[in-house]
């Protein structure tokens, strides 16, 4: 990831420019600024996590990147062109269970290609490839209600990837899963990312998840949501189960935690600032 | 699967719901039987259960029952198919597309509080007392619950599925046909089931007025000749046919919503 200051000429794979979002509330009529002056440039092939406490607008930001919501001010650029509505190049994985319950697994996975008029033979190949990639080949004919929560998330991932997107936007996709399943899904998503090298923007409120997955973590502050810090990961890849218990992981998590405390502006803010200063170039850069 | 279903038949028959239910029904019949046998009761007006069974046998033997039941069934099926198809198409459009709603909602909401039977005099004046007028009444009766449920179902489509389809590149029309319609099917089924019963209700009412055949005609005609036994047979057959149609509707509905883990049993 580069910020606009570091690399002003770059447009990146996905860029957010001066994005502000206000939300009308009432009665009495008033306005809540959810996001304020967000600037981000996400480079091709990067795995970016957006983290922040609940209510900081991180999901709203991601929905705007997908064109599901229009910002009050500013814009989102995909390959330099403004996003003004959903586009199939921007795949989305939702927090809730979004697998169509009335379609079988394979028909769910085929949904995107079918929508875009991909020829049958090619569609069939995509379905086979992505069902295999997420380990659901044996369940192709099953209905979602026959699958566990984790398996349904796999269907969701396969469906997004089978549509040949350019960027994957994931909105706390594993928040509802148990710890064990969550870890498996994180491994799965890293494997998908490694094999496709497609840009991923992943929203989460889970520190461990952000540390484990990301090249770069964008820390948002709250009310209004602003980019508080951009933290580049120092963890080596590939990452495995051992990574989760390594000292490097613990250190990276600590750094991120102090940054997040600082973003909250709580009593530990001063301590966090100090920690950030001493952590020097492994850490942050204020946006 | 099949064998376990067969094995559980006896177990199911022994459940309190079934046992107590059967006893409750038997009690009603018993009270009726007692009243019928009381001295001073005119058996022509209050026929005993054996007399009713005899009337049923006679009606079956003469073929009258079959002719009348088929006449009613044909009407209700034609009326149901027309009324339900119209209702599903219009209700789905009104519930999904904003401008279709602007056009159709006032019409639907204006029709809503009017009982289908209130149209009978008007229909007779406009189209006479022939077969079409009876079918029109049934169409109107079926249409109302179906259209209201279809529209409600489209309003309840989960936004998450719509968003998912859109991000996958589905056009607005494709979202309508592949997301909104299938996810509203449980509501359609609920509407169709209500439609079957209201259609059946209207059928009998329509047949009470100048019909040459049908179960409504049969009970009306028998009543005029004080054949109370035949009237009661007709009423029982109407009840059984109504229950049969409802079962067909609900089984079809269950088959269509096999994907759903939510059971909606209205």
Write up this protein:
The complex is a heterodimer of chains A (287) and B (266). With 287 residues, chain A is of the alpha/beta class. In chain A, 37% of the residues lie in helices and 23% in strands. The longest helix of chain A has 18 residues, at 179-196. Chain A is globular. Residues 1-9 and 278-287 of chain A have low confidence and may be disordered. The longest helix of chain B has 37 residues, at 172-208. Chain B has helices at residues 2-13, 16-37, 49-62, 64-96, 98-111, 120-127, 131-155, 159-167, 172-208, 215-224, 228-256. The A-B interface holds A 66, 68, 86-88, 90-92, 94, 96-98, 100-103, 111-112, 115-116, 143-145, 159-160, 163 and B 160-161, 163-171, 174, 178-179, 182-183, 185, 258-261.
Which features characterize this protein?
heterodimer, A: 287 residues, alpha/beta, globular, disordered C terminus, B: 266 residues, mainly alpha, MetI-like fold, 0% strand
* Count of alpha/pi helices of chain B: 11
Radius of gyration of chain B: 23 Å
CATH topology term of the largest domain in chain B: MetI-like fold
The proportion of residues forming helix of chain A, as a percent range, comes to 25-40%
The stretches of 5 or more residues of chain A where confidence is low (pLDDT under 50) are: 1-9, 278-287
Specify the oligomeric state.
heterodimer
**Low-confidence runs of at least 5 consecutive residues of chain B:** none
**Number of discrete domains of chain B:** 2
